[in-house]
Description:
heterodimer; A: mainly alpha; 2 domains; two-stranded antiparallel sheet; 11 helices; 2% strand; B: Rossmann fold; Rossmann fold; six-stranded parallel β-sheet
Amino acid sequence: MGFDYNSLLAFIIFGVTIGVVYGIVALGISLIYSGLDIVHFAHGEMYMFGAFFGLVLAHNVGVPYPIALIGAMVLTALLGMAVERVFYRRLTRAGGGYTVAGMGMIICGFGMSVALVNVAYFIWGAEAEPFRANLDYIPRLSFPGDIEVPESYVLTAIISVALMAALHYFLRHTKTGLAVRAVAHNKDIAYLMGINVPLMISLIFGLACGLGAAAGVLIGPMQSVQVEMGYLMLMKAFAAAVVGGFGSLPGAIIGGIMVGVFENLGAAYISASHKDIYAFLLLILVLMFKPSGLLGVDAKVKA
Amino acid sequence: MRILNKMFAGVVAAGIGITATAAFADDIRVGITMRMVSENGQAYGQMMMDEIKGINESGGINGNMIKATLMNDECKSDKGVANANKMVFQEKVHLLIGSSCSSVTLPIVDVTAKAGVPQLVPHSTNSKITQKGSEWIFRVPVSGRYYGGVNAKYVGENIGTKIAYICAADAASVGDCANMEKQMKARFGVEPAYRADVQEKEVDFRSHMQKIKSMDVDGILVAALAETMARALVQSYEAGIGEDVRRIGSSSASNAPVPKIAGDAAKGVFFTAAYAAADQRPIAKLFNEMVKTRYGIHAPDHDFSQAYDLVRIMEIALKNTNFTGSLADDRTAIRDAIANVQGYEGLASGPISFCAAATPQCRDGNRTAVLIGYTKGGENFETEVLARVTMEPDFGLE
C-alpha cells in the first residue's frame, strides 16, 4: 500500500490549526517572561477562565460568539491584572529570574494555579460544558484529497493570526508598546525615562492573560470547556515557548505550530496513545541542539 | 417513592431466608468509594447513602444499623486504593462497595482479596475484574464481554462489518474495544478497518476522523469515557463523516454528559447498557420519577440503576447474614450471603444471580444487556430501546 499524501496533508493542516492556539498561549507566557523574567505557572488557568467567561457570555448572556471572545479577553485581562496587582506585585518588585523573589514568584504561580482551579470548581463544577457557537458565517476550507477544515478551525486560524499581528503592531508601532519593550529590557532605566513601570507590568499581565483567554474561547467549540483544561495546554504552550525560544514572541508562534504539527504526525504515524509525549520529545531535541530555542538568543543578558 | 420501595420490599423479602443475628449488636460498616467529580457522580453516591439511610429508618438489618462511609476516588486508581485500604484496615468495614471506574476497581480487587473483604462492584465493566479469581468480588453491572457480544451481533447483522475503532486508554474502554473486536472476528471473521488507541482524556480526534472518512466505513465504535466520547462524536461530524456511517458507543454512552455535550451529534448513536430510561416497566417509570424528583436528573442512566440495584442486593445479603461479632467470620458470611443471591429482579434489564465459585461465570451476576439508541441529543435527550439480550454465563471467555 502506497504512502497516503492526502492523510499527511490533513495531519499537517490540523496540526497547524491547533498549533496556532498553542502559539498564542505561548505568546502570553513569553510576554510575561520577557517583561518580568518570571515563568507564570498559572497561565493555563487564565486560559481556562477565559474559556468559561466566553461560555457564560455566549450561553448565559446570549451575546454573539465574536463579542463573547472580546468580552472574555477583557474580563480575563482584568482578572490577570488584579492577580498581578494583589498577589504578584510585591514579588515582581523585588526582582525576577534567578533571584529569591523570582523563585518565590514561581512557587506563587503554582499556588495561584491550584487556587484558581478550585475557584473554578466552586463556580462551574467539574463537568465539561459544551460550547455551542453559531459559526455558519465562516466558510469551510477545502483542500485536495477531500480534506475539509471545519468552520471553528478556520476561525481559530484567522483570529490567532489577527491577534499576533495586532500584538506585533502594538509592540512595534505604538508609544505604549515601546514603553512595554523598555520595561522588558530594563525596568530601572525605564523608571528613569519616566515610564510608569508598575502600570506597564500590569498591562503586560493583562495582555498575556487576554491572549490566553482568546485561546480558551477558540478551543471551546472544538473540545468543550472544563475546569481541568488548563494544565495540558500550559504544558504544550511551555513546550512551544521553549522550542521557539523563551522570551521570543515570533518564536512562541513558530514553536506552537511546530509542536502542533509534530504531535499530530507522531499520533498518526507512531502512536496516538502517547500523543502528549511528542511535544516534549521535540522540546528535548531542540534543547539538545539549540538550548536557547529556535529564535532565542544564546545568552540573555539584560542591560 | 413509597410505592417504589414497596415494590422492592417484595423482592427483598423473597430473597431473605431465615435470619439469626441475635448475638450481634453492632453497626454493620460499609465502605463506598466512587467517582464523584461530576454532578451525576455525586448523585450516584448520594443516592446510595439515601437508600442506606432509608434501610436504617425502616429498622435496619434485623435491628442493626448500617454505618456507611462514602469516599471520592475521582476515578484515580491511587486514590481508590488509598480509600479501600483506609476503609478495610482502619475502619474495618464489613463490606466494600466500589468503584465506578474499572481502572480503580481492578487494583482494589487485590486489596479486598488480600484482606478477605467482600466487594460489590457498582459500575465497572472491564471483564478482567472478575477474571482475577478473587472469591471476594461480585459485579452488579453487565460485564464488558457481554456488551461486546451484543454490540458485535447487532452491528454485524444490521450495520456492516467494516468498522473503525477509536479506543480510549481507560480500563473500561480498552476492555469494550477488545471485546467488540474479538466478537467481530469470531462471528464475522473481520479485523478493524481502522483502529486508534487514544488517551483517556483525548481532546483532538480530527486526524483520526479524517483518516476514517477516507475509508468509507460502515460504522465507528467510540469506546471512551463520557466527555471524551462526546468530543469524538462532535468531531466526527465536523470532519464531514455523514449520518449514514453509524456511531457506536461503549457503555459510557449511557452517561448523561454524552448527549448533553455532543448535542445533535448524539442522535443515532447506539450502545449497550444495563438499563434504559426508556424502559416501560412500572418499576422503571417509578425509578425515573424518583431520581428526577430527588436529584433533578432528567433521565437516569444505568449507573443510577446499578447503584440502586446494588443497595438492594446488599440489603438482601446482609439480612441473610448470620453476624457473630467476629469481623473475619462476618465478612466471610456476607460474602457467602451475596453468593447466594439468586434471580434478583430489580431495575436491571434481566435477573441478577451470583454463585460460590470464584469465576466470572459466577461473579458477573448480570448477563442481560439492553441495546439503546439516542433519538435526540442535548439537555433533554431521548432514547429508544432497540433490543434486549441475555447472554450465556461463559460467553466471551477463552
